[in-house]
Design a protein that fits this description.
There is one protein chain. This protein is an alpha+beta fold and 100 residues long. Among the domains are: 34 residues, no CATH class; 35 residues, no CATH class. The chain is built from 2 helices and 4 strands. The strands form 2 sheets. A two-stranded antiparallel ribbon has the order 1-2. A hairpin with a 2-residue loop joins strand 1 and strand 2. The longest helix has 12 residues. The protein is elongated and about 70 Å long.
Length: 100
Amino acid sequence: MAVYVDDIALVGKTSELKKLIESLQTHFKVTIKGKLSFMLGIEIPHHTDAITLEQQLYIQQILQRFGMEQSHPVSTPIDPKSQLHKATDDELPVDQNLYQ
């Protein structure tokens, strides 16, 4: 169960949800709004075999905020299997501007 201010999102077996809702209704005014499709900036599409969480709208907002709407995805500039290590004192410092 997730509680956000006065909103609650419930996920579970239908029979268990009904019992919980009935219990909540004895103490609080409860409004059932149906399937959850959006909460806290996360889109929640329902598929036949799964429910997924997506943040495409949030990503679009971030890109707009920084003027990067026209940017394009690129490959990772380093092999993701590379093993990184802390620089030793005898190694020359790297120009950080090359990677920003």
